[in-house]
Design a protein that fits this description.
By secondary structure, the protein is an alpha/beta fold. It has a single domain, classed as Ribokinase (UDP-N-acetylmuramoyl-L-alanine:D-glutamate ligase). 33% of the residues lie in helices and 24% in strands. It has ten helices and 13 strands. Strands 5-4-1-8-9-10-11-12-13 form a nine-stranded mixed β-sheet, with helices on both faces. Strands 3-2-6-7 form a four-stranded mixed β-sheet. α3 packs parallel to α4. The protein is globular.
Length: 295
Amino acid sequence: MRILNIGSMNIDYVYKVEHIVSEGETQNVLLVETNVGGKGLNQSVAATRAGGTVFHAGMIGKEGKILVDFLKKSEVDISLVSLCEKDQGHAVIQVDKQGRNSILVYGGSNKMITKEYIDKVLEEFSSEDILMVNNEVSEAEYMLKKAHEKKMKTVFNASPIDNILFNMDLNNVTYLVVNESEGEALSGEKEPKMMLESILHKYHDIRIILTLGPDGSMYRDKEKTIYQESYKVEVKDTTAAGDTFMGYFTAGIAKGLKAEDCMKMASMAAAIAVTKHGAAETIPYITLVNKELNQ
């Protein structure tokens, strides 16, 4: 089963700081780095390193060659990526000494994806394939609708939260991936079990993956609830943790693994990723993940 990711690609400007800047504060930066990133790019790299066959689609600006070069080097198929005249999407990321982050995203080229482009890309895929999408790109709802019509499985990362998302019909989503703040925004609930209950009550056939950082993760569908503990590691940078989790989970589904096994594999991969500084560069390969799981 192939994975199609119509996803964002960003250049990440990372600022290492003592603590996340608060309102009205000016702070000296400890270190500045420029990395490849974007939820879509990170998720494609993660799914490929997990053993999946991944096709990445999306728009890059004139500064985006570094991004497609990294995807190609990571053995992601980039034949569907298109060039546009818009400035390249990018992110401004603060990372504090505890590895916590705060991220501002400029959509740029990622917001130039059109319905016509989506229709053309989806011509190459069928019910035997999976669509992976995040909310950093334009026309996410249309992608999900068209993929659902083709009977593809869909995995949607509801991040970042915005007004478009609140009005989106999620009935076309097979797997919904959210973190705690996104789950609260979509459900109106503060307690994880109630978040899952509320979302499932509205969308009866959806399967929800809720990531809880150091508190682990949860899976819920109309038949079962799974709790996956987090693996304890020394955290240096959480920037790509959620994307690593989603890419590995999706690759597991593409391989036909049970939800329990997908959660375990994704959790270990995310734990390994946060032990290093950076985004896409920190995502581990499946050989290392399996080695750690089998110890």
